[in-house]
Amino acid sequence: MKKRLLITGGAGFIGSNLIHYLANKYPQYELLNLDLLTYAGNLENLKALEGNPNYRFVKGDVGDRQFLEPYFATGLDGGIHLAAESHVDRSITQPDIFVQTNILGTQALLDLARKYKVPRFLQVSTDEVYGSLGETGYFSETKPLAPNSPYSASKASADLLVLAAYHTFGQPVLITRCSNNYGPFQFPEKLIPLMISNALEEKPLPVYGDGLNVRDWLHVKDHCQGIDLVFHGGRVGEVYNIGGNNEYPNIDIVKLIIKALGKSESLITYVKDRPGHDRRYAIDATKIKKELAWAPEYDFERGMAITINWYLENQVWWQTIKSGAYQQYYQKMYGQRERSFS
Ligand code: NAD
Ligand code: DAU
Q: 140-185, pLDDT tens digit by residue?
């Protein structure tokens, strides 16, 4: 069946992977990609879709109701909302834009989706809304929200507004909460592409704190599969966690990358910790597995090998990013960060 879907944030890491995934799986769908092209948005990620008559890009802000209205007025069969400020470190230095985009932008979309009776609206959220875990336990969908960073607080706020739209107005909304993604087209401010690209450039690999914070990694295509299943088959008003049971301390990830690239561990540089650094994330994905038969395809070893290879084969992609405004960002974030260990 033909459907017309709005994807917000489609020029970012997960959004661009999702658009490729949907364009490939549902070639008859019309995909409208709305993205502001902030520092994190990159149309290079979607080059392969240029000329595809069922794909269209529109540059715009999710908070700009006037601009958005005509796109809703033409009739949408659904919206998948990924546009966000997504980097925890940036939220510590500039929280306002996280409130603006992640909270107010989500409310603008919800209001328009209600006005134009969009039959399905999926909010792509994060496991970070649950806060931090100790050495044991998992995040299930019923765990109370306890966000710790301005980023996660803004995502938790947006999630609550989405659920309020369901409870108050009966709006057909859904939420997914995924763990850390890795894969192609990830902006090199995030751990894995930062470490791969720095290692290839023989630059220091900045590990925060003691390097023992744990993240639960999932290949981005497995996340896209989960979004697809929830969007098409999930129960409205419900939250679905997505995660692949792949917990690793950060230092293990860094060492894995060093080994795969044949570099020296002397590149590892322990730096001052991230303020309020969540210790451990781990997802319980039982609900999406049971209800929607979601199952990740990538085991971590294979997913990482393919990913490292992608960054090796696409050096121009990340070198172009790193040669621009990124350099000022890097100096600001890491230039003053004294070494905490050697
Ligand atoms: P990203 O930073 O790579 O991409 C975000 C995209 O949103 C960019 O293309 C940017 O231009 C766009 N954008 C930002 N502000 C906008 C605005 N005001 N209007 C329109 N577009 C705007 O982020 P990502 O890692 O791809 O994450 C996408 C979504 O998935 C986010 O909502 C994030 O919270 C969520 N998420 C990410 C992860 C992860 O590991 N990366 C895990 C779980 C959930
Ligand atoms: O859990 C899902 C979340 O994962 C998403 O909601 C966020 O959008 C996404 O950015 C990611 O957040 P993290 O803060 O976990 O990802 P990041 O890649 O920034 O950091 C991963 C871990 O690596 C974290 O413990 C901090 C550490 N780190 C990160 C960087 C950039 C370092 O040690 N050194 C670094 O230079």
A: 999 999 999 999 999 999 999 999 999 999 999 999 999 999 999 9
Could you tell me the CATH number of the domain that includes residue 43? 3.40.50.720
Note the pLDDT tens digit of each residue in 75-129: 999 999 999 999 999 999 999 999 999 999 999 999 999 999 999 999 999 999 9
Whether residue 159 lies inside any domain: the answer is yes
* Alpha helical stretches, state H, 189-299: 191-200, 220-233, 250-261, 286-292
Note the pLDDT tens digit of each residue in 188-237.
999 999 999 999 999 999 999 999 999 999 999 999 999 999 999 999 99
Is any atom of ligand 2 closer than 6 Å to the C-beta of 181? no
Residue 255 domain flag: no
Is 269 a member of any domain?
no
Helix (H, G, I), strand (E, B) or coil at 286: helix
23 vs 11: CA distance, rounded Å:
14
Q: Give the structural domain span for 94.
A: 4-181+220-245+280-297+327-333
Q: Point out the ligand 1 atom lying closest to the alpha carbon of residue 38.
A: 11
Q: What is the pTM of this model?
A: 0.97
The tally of domains found in the chain comes to: 1
Q: For atom 17 of ligand 1, which residue has the closest CA?
A: 61
In a domain, 65, yes or no: yes
Q: Are 212 and 250 in contact (CB under 8 A)?
A: yes
